[in-house]
Amino acid sequence: MSLIDKLQWRYATKKMDPTKSVPPEKVEQILEAIRLTASSSGLQPYEVLVITNKAIREKIKAIAWDQSQIVDSSHLLVFAAWDTYTADRINQSFDMTEKIRNFKSEAGDIYRQKLLNGYTARDAETNYTHAAKQAYIGLGTALIAAAYEQVDSTPMEGFDAAALDEILNLKEKGLRSVVMMPLGYRKADEDWLMNLKKVRKPKESFITWIE
Question: pTM higher than 0.85 for the full model?
């Protein structure tokens, strides 16, 4: 199957088979794809929590509209963004870049200072919103990577974020939950959505070429 064929195959799975587990190597491929994805200034201002603990997922289900995929999937990914940008977080990112690339540059120092001056002067909510947008880039990559591995997934915003933050102790880590994504395998005989045609806008009304 080509990538497009696999994207045609994927859909937001509504019913997952709790007896089937995603192999560790496929989960690792999906997580690595998220780690390698793009982010603004390369800061990667979010983390991914992988939850397999059933008791914790039952608690999450209770504050997430009782969506069964949360407990029927084999892995639940939670994307949690930085609650704000701080000088320490920005400096750690630039320090890591310099260490890995084994050089410093005047341009890099100038850009570091630009971010330090700009981001730390903004209010925390503005910074969180920006970081959350980066988490959604990771979510998009995760959806595509899961489809490539032929693993079912469902992006989820339907949950009480404050309650989820408390369940996962995110506040203590300087994080706030953004979006969730269960990984598993569809239960074909119980998922009403599986056999419905994929509905997307036609190219003519979705894509504009400017030449």
Answer: yes
Q: What is the pLDDT of residues 96-108, one digit of tens each?
A: 999 999 999 999 9
The residue among 119, 114, 110, 125 whose CA lies nearest residue 89 is 119
CA dist 164 and 167 (Å) reads 5
- Cβ contact 12:154 at 8 Å: yes
**CA quadruple 139, 16, 11, 7: dihedral sign:** positive
Distance, CA of 33 to CA of 20 (rounded, Å): 22
H or E element that contains 195: none
Place of tokens 């903004």: 122
3-class state of residue 20 by DSSP: coil
Q: pLDDT-based confidence at 155, cuts 50/70/90?
A: very high
